[in-house]
Amino acid sequence: MYQIFTANPKTEKILRKNIEFKQEIKNKLDKLKENPYKANNAHTLHGELKGKWTCWLGANIRAIYTINEKEKLIIIEAVGTHKIY
Fold it and tell me: Which of 7, 24, 55, 62 would be 40's cystine partner, CB 3.0–4.6 Å?
């Protein structure tokens, strides 16, 4: 199983705020820990964000993250609507 970390304080604050109010997001983060390559409709990004992954966390909330396979880490870099792209 992977561990989840945030890349910066802003992302940490947004993620914590959403988790407090939505059990669905907590459940999806748990699924992401199990398989960051397939959970929550995960897929790779293209263009400037090539090498990063994205998945749905809620109705209009997405996460952009990188995966460190060697250390089994998921580093969430941004959380928000499609505007985060």
Answer: 55
The C-alpha atoms of residue 72 and residue 12 are separated, in whole angstroms, by 19
Number of H helices, E strands in the chain: 2, 5
Expressed as residue numbers, the domain containing 73 is 3-80
Asked, for residue 85, whether it belongs to a domain, the answer is no
Question: Which residue type sits at 11?
Answer: T
pLDDT in tens, 23-59: 888 999 999 999 999 999 999 999 999 999 999 998 7
Residue that the structure tokens 């209009």 belong to:
60
Q: pTM here? A: 0.89
| Residue 17 domain flag | yes
> Which strands form 3-6's sheet, in the order they lie side by side?
3-6, 73-80, 62-68, 53-56, 43-44
Q: How far apart are CA 17 and CA 12, in angstroms?
A: 9
Six token digits for residue 60: 């209009």
